[in-house]
Recover the amino acids of this structure.
């Protein structure tokens, strides 16, 4: 076995894992917040996430078409697409809740889940339809901005690109903002109260429906930001590319203890690291017999094992049973 | 009386119409509609049975003689009816939402594909494979057993999970099976990866029937068996146990329902139907690859069960028929029609259809159809088109 190689790539894999982990953490927050207040898996969150990426790419392509992409300062462009992506995803998340979930709130547990699966499938093809009519293409590539692709060489085996730094900084900002909203504001207190006990919260004068909408709004905005960052980092998107990251982010949420906001962050980073290491080391360690293509299986196996042996997740929010 | 005359007339008329206009999708839909009418009409049981036998055993093969594609559609409908009935046991009766159901179908398909093609020589060496075509029939049983075993394998670790967690884990399981099928071409080449396996041996055709007719009848026989088994299961001891678990697991356990055994049986039974159909599918297609066993297929089968009504046998049959026909005929028909309009240079409201984007193909939008079915059914009619009475009452409020 090539030990120097194994050690040599370690820092780079670690960095890739952390970036992936932040992405998962941002998406996982959407799942976990909704689960916290409604005890229901918002299956359509993966599409809400990818819509953010599409809003971002549309703006970039329009700017490029207008010749503004090179002239505008790049931080401004980044902030613009982030904000727009967040707004688009948040609006979508709120309308999905209003149309497809709210009428089903009193129904047996499987009913809203099936509806959510329907929304997920519907949105995938809706994005495809819109992009097919609008651009006559639905596999879109993020236009490159040269600044973002510059790389700093930290050591001989580790280099970091500007866009990776952007992803990390943006993700940290988002997570901090969310933490502040949930823990330090009145609205955040209301969200936590609704998650604790809807009936009691409404008796205390909290408008439960508004808080649920707000939860979808915040979760959707986080998902949209993740979508834009996903596009910036990986470049190629299509209407179906939200699905697998969504599933992994859900795994991350469960890993950290679903319903638990810090748990989603920890779970996301742990899963990102696990996956990055599986992708690079599996093939090296098994002499090429099993390659990076097994990283998905790896993530799902983690999910199954966690659910069987530690259903409360790493940070242990109680998974409640509803008859 | 009037119903009887109407039913006979409709079946006869639509069959004649299909024979006269062998290319029209609409007319074929009419034929299917007449069967639905026959099912719903207030007519004596013997007349209904006779009409169905007539339509399925005589008219359908004759129609297929004029237009082979209809027979293909009918065969596909049959395959999906069996799948929907299998999933109906797991989701409808036992209330365990399985989002990876197509994995069992894949297991059955690969079972015959590997041994019924020269591919097995790569695994075991030598030149003993493909097995003789006659082995296909015993392999229906092998496929059933392997799929049922896989069902138990999935069932064991997830027994403790409920509701949405179970759904996600079964989804993950389905993806794992697909990823395995995609990548097990090394270190040992078991599935030949994304390239798939071909040529797969077809069974010897009884009575010298042409291939497509033979597969049609084979599928028909299997569907008939599956329906009978379902009927018997529904009112059996174990069927009641499943429904009790669905309604209230705790209460069921308190009443002495053996939870572990009942749940495992539900998984195994549901899986076994898919396994058998998988064997048939791989022989019919001659070629299989992992693309046929995606999450999309699982959701498609789920949409069939939901549309018809969870737990309802006629519901599963109707749901499978409607969704398959939508996919295979209506959407494709729409695509062709749109293309014809485009090529003819038709303008609508001053907009020339030739300017329509080339990426716009209605046939590619099956997800949208599934999605709309799932959302609308859940909001407006969660009990399905043909609800079971008990289930309908449960969902009323």
């Amino acid at each position: 076995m090539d030990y120097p190689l194994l050690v040599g790539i370690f820092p780079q894999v670690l960095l890739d894992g952390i970036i992936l982990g932040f992405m998962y953490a941002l998406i996982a927050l959407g799942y976990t917040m909704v689960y916290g207040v409604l005890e229901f898996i918002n299956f359509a969150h993966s599409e809400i996430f990818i819509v953010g990426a599409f809003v971002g790419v549309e703006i970039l392509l329009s700017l490029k078409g207008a010749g503004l992409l090179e002239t505008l300062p790049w931080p401004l462009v980044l902030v613009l697409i982030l904000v727009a992506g967040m707004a688009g995803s948040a609006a979508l998340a709120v309308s999905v809740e209003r149309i497809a979930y709210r009428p089903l709130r009193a129904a047996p547990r499987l009913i809203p889940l099936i509806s959510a699966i329907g929304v997920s499938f519907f949105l995938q093809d809706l994005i495809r339809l819109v992009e097919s009519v609008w651009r006559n293409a639905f596999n879109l590539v993020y236009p490159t901005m040269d600044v973002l692709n510059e790389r700093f060489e930290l050591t001989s085996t580790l280099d970091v690109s500007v866009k990776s730094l952007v992803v990390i900084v943006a993700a940290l900002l988002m997570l901090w903002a969310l933490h502040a909203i949930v823990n330090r504001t009145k609205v955040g207190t209301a969200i936590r109260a609704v998650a604790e006990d809807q009936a009691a919260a409404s008796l205390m004068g909290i408008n439960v429906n508004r808080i649920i909408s707000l939860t979808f709004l915040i979760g959707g905005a986080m998902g949209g930001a993740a979508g834009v960052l996903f596009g910036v980092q990986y470049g190629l998107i299509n209407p179906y590319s939200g699905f697998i990251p969504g599933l992994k982010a859900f795994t991350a949420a469960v890993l950290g203890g679903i319903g638990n906001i810090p748990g989603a962050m920890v779970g996301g980073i742990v899963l990102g690291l696990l996956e990055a290491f599986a992708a690079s080391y599996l093939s090296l360690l098994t002499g090429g017999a099993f390659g990076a293509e097994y990283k998905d299986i790896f993530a799902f196996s983690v999910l199954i094992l966690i659910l069987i042996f530690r259903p409360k997740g790493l940070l242990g929010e109680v998974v409640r049973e509803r008859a | 009386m009037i119903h009887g005359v109407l039913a006979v007339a409709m079946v006869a008329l639509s069959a004649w119409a299909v024979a006269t206009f062998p290319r029209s999708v609409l007319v074929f839909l009419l034929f299917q509609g007449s069967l639905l009418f026959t099912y719903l009409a207030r007519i004596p049981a013997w007349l209904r049975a006779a009409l169905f036998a007539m339509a399925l055993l005589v008219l359908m093969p004759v129609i297929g003689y004029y237009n082979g594609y209809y027979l293909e559609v009918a065969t596909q409908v049959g395959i999906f009816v069996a799948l929907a009935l299998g999933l109906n046991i797991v989701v409808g009766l036992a209330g365990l939402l399985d989002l990876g159901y197509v994995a069992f179908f894949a297991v059955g398909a690969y079972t015959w594909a590997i041994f019924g093609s020269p591919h097995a020589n790569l695994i075991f060496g030598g030149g003993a494979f493909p097995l003789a075509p006659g082995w296909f029939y015993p392999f229906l049983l092998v496929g059933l057993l392997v799929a049922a075993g896989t069902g138990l394998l999935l069932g064991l670790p997830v027994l403790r999970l409920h509701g949405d967690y179970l759904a996600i884990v079964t989804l993950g399981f389905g993806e794992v099976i697909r990823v395995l099928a995609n990548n097990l071409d090394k270190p040992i080449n078991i599935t030949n990866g994304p390239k798939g396996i071909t040529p797969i041996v077809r069974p010897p055709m009884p009575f010298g029937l042409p291939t497509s007719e033979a597969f049609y009848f084979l599928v028909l026989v299997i569907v008939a068996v599956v329906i009978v088994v379902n009927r018997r299961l529904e009112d059996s001891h174990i069927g009641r146990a499943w429904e009790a678990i669905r309604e209230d697991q705790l209460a069921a356990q308190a009443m002495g329902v053996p939870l572990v055994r009942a749940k495992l049986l539900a998984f195994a039974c549901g899986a076994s139907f898919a396994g058998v159909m998988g064997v048939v599918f791989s022989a019919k297609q001659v070629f299989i690859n992992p693309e046929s066993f995606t999450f999309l297929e699982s959701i498609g089968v789920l949409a069939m069960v939901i549309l018809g009504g969870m737990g309802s046998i006629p519901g599963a049959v109707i749901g499978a028929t409607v969704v398959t026909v939508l996919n295979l005929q209506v959407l494709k028909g729409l695509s062709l029609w749109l293309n014809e309009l485009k090529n003819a240079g038709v303008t609508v409201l001053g907009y020339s259809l030739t300017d329509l984007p080339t990426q716009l193909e209605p046939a590619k939008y099956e997800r949208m159809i599934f999605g709309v079915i799932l959302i609308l059914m859940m909001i407006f009619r969660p009990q399905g088109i043909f609800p079971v009475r008990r289930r309908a009452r449960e969902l009323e409020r």
Notes: The two ends of chain B are 37 Å apart (CA to CA). Chain B has two domains: 1-66, 69-343+359-395. Chain B touches chain A through 51 residues (CB under 8 Å).
